[in-house]
Write a structure and sequence with these properties.
The protein has one domain (3-154). It has helices at residues 3-33, 43-62, 68-102, 107-113, 125-154. Helices cover 78% and strands 0% of the residues. The two termini are 12 Å apart. It contains five helices and no strands. The chain crosses the membrane at residues 12-32, 38-56, 68-88, 126-149. Keywords: Membrane, Transmembrane, Transmembrane helix.
Length: 157
Amino acid sequence: MLKPVKKEQGKVSLYSNILMILTSVHHAYGAVVYHTPWRMHILFMSVPMILVTLLLNRVLQQKADRSGWAWVFGSLVLLLSVMMIGTYEGLYNHVLKNVLYFGGLSARGMAMFFPPSMYELPNDALFEVTGMLQGVVVIPLVIHFIGWVRGLLNSTT
């Protein structure tokens, strides 16, 4: 694997792990504040994801070629970090929710997009800030992920 690809991969690993740590803290805090212990379920995904990402990044940093492990690494980061946490949890569940709420969307409209049985309307600054930060961290993650994939694809030609 070329040096620029390894550098991008390292950044992908870093931002993915920042996102997973942030979501772990966010959900643990939400479980306590909102008396919803089910929010802790995310730790069963985020902690293993951190460990697997660190391990695969280390293995791939030592490999000189593209391997199936690179695609395992990329698939996990894309599905779990980018799509599930960064896009859905960060951008939809928090950034969009706060924009609509503070933008004046009616209570009925908020309930339609964010059913009260699943969502809390903004009422705790730390919970909302850590939630929105997930949407912020996904941006550099996506940028470096795209650079990493391009580098992998170009290294075959």
